Amino acid sequence: MPTQLGIAAVAVAFVAALAMMLGAAAATKVAAVVVVVLGTWWWGGSSEVEPQYSGAKIEGDVVTLDFVKKMMDDFKNQKCLHRRYAFQIVLQTREMLRAQPPLVDINVPDGSHFTVCGDVHGQFYDLLNIFELNGLPSEENPYLFNGDFVDRGSFSVEVILTLFALKCMCPSAIYLARGNHESKSMNKIYGFEGEVRSKLSDTFVELFAEVFCCLPLAHVINQKVFVVHGGLFSVDGVKLSDIKAIDRFCEPPEEGLMCELLWSDPQPLPGRGPSKRGVGLSFGVDVTKKFLRDNNLDLIVRSHEVKDEGYEIEHDGKLITVFSAPNYCDQMGNKGAYIRFEAPDLKPNIVTFAAVPHPDVKPMAYANNFLRMFQ
């Protein structure tokens, strides 16, 4: 029996034995790790780059700016990245994200700037346009992408590999936060899982799911600006220390602090109300102001909702929603936006932009077949 098949057979037997001893739930978690480890070994050890491959290549272990530019140009021309290099990028990103806390503190020196982007949702050509308008990420031009990198848009693989490659190139140039779409259940329905299977392989589905569980849940800029994908909480008194204590290495639960960070939305009325999404909650200006006061913060920046102008300022100027996917799903007609903060005052400078053309691949092209019936 070939070595790879033999090891795979042993792994299957190992998971089956665990299922008998520990139960199906525990065995499922172990199986996911085994799949990732086996897949990593399989491709890392045997996925040789064919001589005819003319795409972007990583020499050794270092992801360079030249590689990233070549890869982005290949993606722009609808060319694929070799799976060997995709594995290298995703695995390096996993290790960097795993080492970060659930709440990341970002320091922007006086005289420097920092850019926050909202949902990109697989709109790769609009991501390229952001970089055209605002420059590529670098130590002098750092970015935070605030979740929902994938799903809906049909160039999600290109988006996530670009963001991850930039993270590998220069970790301090780009920060990445988890959104509600960085989850298995959403990816299965809204297209990312199908796109990964089509453009990469089944093994990458499990690998991306594991990496998404390593993404931080929130960021704080200069101890003043709280950045999170969704919003605030169903209870008062939540401190930044409570967020730092969350065990995030899992699929998002259906309730609790982690769920609410990823899913909640602001509402115009004070107090709290049910979520229009059925998950998380809606929170009013009083909730926003109390959270800021309790944690000595000045502003909340969040994403998660499409806005006609690409952004909306609410709650007496204490909360900004930023959304960076213009003409969302090729049909909403909205602008995109990003926020550029200048230190030390951190006054938000909001830049809006229109959608750019992309190849004739419809949104949700890789989505669940049942869901596509309604597009």
UniProtKB/TrEMBL annotation:
Family stated for the protein in its record:
Belongs to the PPP phosphatase family. PP-5 (PP-T) subfamily.
Reaction catalysed by this enzyme: O-phospho-L-seryl-[protein] + H2O = L-seryl-[protein] + phosphate; O-phospho-L-threonyl-[protein] + H2O = L-threonyl-[protein] + phosphate
According to the entry, every stretch annotated as the Serine/threonine specific protein phosphatases domain falls at 81-357
Gene Ontology cellular-component annotations? cytoplasm
Manganese found in the keyword field = yes
Residues annotated as catalytic = H181 (proton donor/acceptor)
EC number of the protein: 3.1.3.16
Q: Which domain of life is it from?
A: Eukaryota
User: Coiled-coil segments, which residues?
Assistant: none
Keyword list, A-Z: Cytoplasm, Hydrolase, Manganese, Metal-binding, Protein phosphatase, Repeat, Signal, TPR repeat
Q: What class of enzyme is it?
A: hydrolase
Q: What is its main location?
A: cytoplasm
Q: Where are the transmembrane segments?
A: none
Question: Cofactor(s) for this protein?
Answer: Mn(2+)
* Compartment(s) where it occurs, according to its Swiss-Prot or TrEMBL record: Cytoplasm
Any idea what this protein is called? Answer: Serine/threonine-protein phosphatase 5
Q: Where is the signal peptide?
A: 1-27
Q: Which InterPro entries match?
A: Calcineurin-like_PHP, Metallo-depent_PP-like, PP5_C, PPP_dom, PPP_phosphatase, Ser/Thr-sp_prot-phosphatase
Q: Does the keyword Transmembrane helix apply?
A: no
GO MF, any single term: protein serine/threonine phosphatase activity
